Amino acid sequence: xxxxxxxxxxxxxxxxxxxxxxxxxxxxxxxxxxxxxxxxxxxxxxxxxxxxxxxxxxxxxxxxxxxxxxxxxxxxxxxxxxxxxxxxxxxxxxxxxxxxxxxxxxxxxxxxxxxxxxxxxxxxxxxxxxxxxxxxxxxxxxxxxxxxxxxxxxxxxxxxxxxxxxxxxxxxxxxxxxxxxxxxxxxxxxxxxxxxxxxxxxxxxxxxxxxxxxxxxxxxxxxxxxxxxxxxxxxxxxxxxxxxxxxxxxxxxxxxxxxxxxxxxxxxxxxxxxxxxxxxxxxxxxxxxxxxxxxxxxxxxxxxxxxxxxxxxxxxxxxxxxxxxxxxxxxxxxxxxxxxxxxxxxxxxxxxxxxxxxxxxxxxxxxxxxxxxxxxxxxxxxxxxxxxxxxxxxxxxxxxxxxxxxxxxxxxxxxxxxxxxxxxxxxxxxxxxxxxxxxxxxxxxx
Length: 446
Prior knowledge:
Elements: E1 13-18, H1 21-29, E2 39-41, E3 54-55, H2 57-61, E4 80-82, H3 86-103, E5 109-113, E6 116-120, H4 125-128, H5 132-147, E7 151-156, H6 159-169, E8 177-179, H7 182-189, H8 203-211, H9 217-222, H10 225-232, H11 235-243, H12 251-256, E9 262-274, H13 276-296, E10 299-310, H14 314-323, E11 333-344, H15 347-361, E12 368-380, H16 394-414, H17 431-434, E13 437-438, E14 441-442
Parallel strand pairs: 2-4, 7-8
Antiparallel strand pairs: 1-6, 1-7, 2-3, 5-6, 9-12, 10-11, 10-12, 13-14
Helix pairs in contact: 3-5, 10-11, 13-15, 13-16
């Protein structure tokens, strides 16, 4: 039996999700009903292997999963393909947040993603003279009447149970509302499968639990603790808590959390295989973008890391299918890191370090399919240890910093493609196209 109860007492949380958000926005923009219109949000300029960002509820009712690839949609289903418009989705998400603020103070809202948020409504029930369900329904109704978007809602005594009530109960309920307590969670979901339906349990953790003979939350709750800690380390505590429906973290704790260190990262998957020398051009562009981001936020990086993912050979693909080896199905890869003597935001220094790492680590006989960079141990410009060392060219670095600030100002005012380096005009370069994207998808702006 589980040890001492660690859950929160006398609190009530909601978790609200905007149903098929991107697809619903596209339907509403066209004056269509998302529940009767077959629509997918996907980029028609990419191949049929591209992933659909969303499908309408009508498509889901036909058995089409929300994140399928275009070629996986059954051919007998007719549908509208809407190109992504990330700028529009961000705008609509902000408008939804404005509706939330009519009911709940920002201190009691945690935005989990562009279409999902948590609410600590404990102090609002007496204020509005409503039950928790009535308040959740009122917020959902306000979103629907204001923006035409249907929302689903989960409710529970902690954030974990509110999320599970949303993901497993509400999304499969005709009224789009789910409610769980610790007791009802154990009574109704301890035998639920698959485990991947539960928040924070992905395929990898599910496989590791299966190797221990654990296939349900009830089995996890009853499992000996010591083997779990040997397998998962400190993360076992989270798994055990969640198996019992317990989540000690509060909204206030999340709001007060500050990470010890920061990192800025950027990555991309190529639409075709790149030769190493072509991939290096893209990495240099990405280093420039990281430098501009550091300058814009008045930060400096203590180091930089490079990731190079290769196209898998046929025998490697077979191995991946059989054993899920070679870096989580992505194929073989090389990684490297470099530490600066003094933290920097210099584009020149970042590009030089990236080029050095790339040439050291990249396998010259392999084609490159994806790359990633990360500026690590990021500090404020004024933090101790960020001052120039005796070997630095102070004037040159100051001039470069001033230029970067000017470039950021111009890009903010006239668009990211208003100023480009010569390297960005090469046929292998991707910066111009990526500048028209948000999160790797088309922004929808000219």
